[in-house]
Amino acid sequence: MSTMTKNETLPRAARKRERTRGELVAAAERLVAARGLDALSIDDITEEADVAKGTFYTHFEDKDDLAAEIGRNIRLELEDKITATNEDVTDAATRMANGLSSLCAFAIMQPVRARALLRLIPGGVDPDTPINAGIRGDVAMGEKTKRFTVASVNAATVATIGIAMSAGMRLSDETRRVPEPFAFAAEVVATALTALGMKPTEALRLAKTAMDLRKKELAP
């Protein structure tokens, strides 16, 4: 049985092109995470990737084109993870705990990529933007099924997004690491659930269960 990857089946020139593109994306992820997009130049990115400046333009139109790919790739990876975790889960509170715990675990385990994503999210706090459809859907489901008690779906979605983004930035801060990140993440998830109207004891139970599962999934 063949074990060749997709890239290995490509011609040598195409494989080299894919490697170079990947190096540019990885370099930009590191720089965006550290300094933000606005502070970067194409020269910065190509120097970090150790490629010629002209090479950049064979892969991307401009810095914004590269940034869009970075944000899209990381977002889709995280969304796929959350979708798989919530497959067949019909309880809104459990879905929310799973989604928030997945984001927190991602920030803990992949801090550079997490910071890059958080810096590149377009319309990050807009409750109607497509990237927030999952959170909004779970808030609406929770309100309908009486699992959550909120002033409005929009307000609750914005508040939950704010908690998620703040937690992601804090957990991915490598200069001042959280001493017990998974325990702290569970407290953040519990706080978000409590803000949605759940009783603190149940919120903390769900949050701890979700974070324990994420930690177990990451164990070697």
Describe this structure as you would to a colleague.
The chain contains ten helices and no strands. With 220 residues, the protein is mainly alpha-helical. 69% of the residues lie in helices and 0% in strands. It has helices at 12-35, 42-49, 53-56, 63-85, 92-109, 111-120, 133-144, 153-171, 181-195, 200-218. The chain folds into two domains: 7-60, Homeodomain-like (Arc Repressor Mutant, subunit A, Orthogonal Bundle), CATH 1.10.10.60; 71-218, Tetracycline Repressor, domain 2 (Orthogonal Bundle). The model has no long low-confidence stretch (mean pLDDT 88). Helix 1 crosses helix 2 (42-49), helix 5 runs antiparallel to helix 9 and helix 7 (133-144) packs across helix 8.
According to CATH, the fold-level topology of the largest domain is Tetracycline Repressor, domain 2
Query: Structural class of the helix and strand makeup?
Result: mainly alpha
Rg, please? 19 Å
The percent range for helix content is 55-70%
CATH architecture of the largest domain: Orthogonal Bundle
Which terms summarize this structure?
single chain; 220 residues; mainly alpha; Arc Repressor Mutant, subunit A; Tetracycline Repressor, domain 2; 2 domains; 10 helices
Short characterization:
The protein is 69% helix and 0% strand. It has helices at 12-35, 42-49, 53-56, 63-85, 92-109, 111-120, 133-144, 153-171, 181-195, 200-218.
Secondary structure layout:
Blueprint: H1 12-35, H2 42-49, H3 53-56, H4 63-85, H5 92-109, H6 111-120, H7 133-144, H8 153-171, H9 181-195, H10 200-218
Helix pairs in contact: 1-2, 1-4, 1-6, 4-5, 4-6, 5-6, 5-7, 5-8, 5-9, 5-10, 6-8, 7-8, 8-9, 9-10
